[in-house]
Amino acid sequence: MHAPKQVRHVDLCQGYNPENANDALMILGIGRRFEIGPEDKYDRWRLEPWAVQAALRRRRGGAKLTDKEIAEIRRTTWEADTLVLPRGTPA
């Protein structure tokens, strides 16, 4: 019999709030914050194109994206014009 593999725990919290999804997006490199202006009281985030593209590729057999869904994807993705949308999706 083989000895059980030892699991190495790595502390990734480095001062981030683990209950905040935005911190998780940043730690994983999936999203980045951007500023609209000093009067904006909310954090604004956009997703990295590689993460959105990976999600779009996983939609095998899903319903066609609606115009509203496409607009939302484009609005919330950095460099959205680089995305390859599923076939049958309006440009």
Structural class: alpha+beta
Total strand count, please? 2
Number of helices: 3
Q: Report the sheet with the most strands, covering strand number, pairing sense and barrel closure.
A: 2 strands, antiparallel
Please give the radius of gyration in angstroms: 18 Å
Architecture overview:
The chain has 91 residues and is of the alpha+beta class. It contains 3 helices and 2 strands, in the order αββαα. A two-stranded antiparallel ribbon has the order 1-2. The termini are far apart.
Task: Give a quick set of tags describing it.
91 residues; alpha+beta; two-stranded antiparallel ribbon; 3 helices; 29% helix; 9% strand; flat
Task: Give a short synopsis of this structure.
By secondary structure, the chain is α+β, with helices and mostly antiparallel strands.
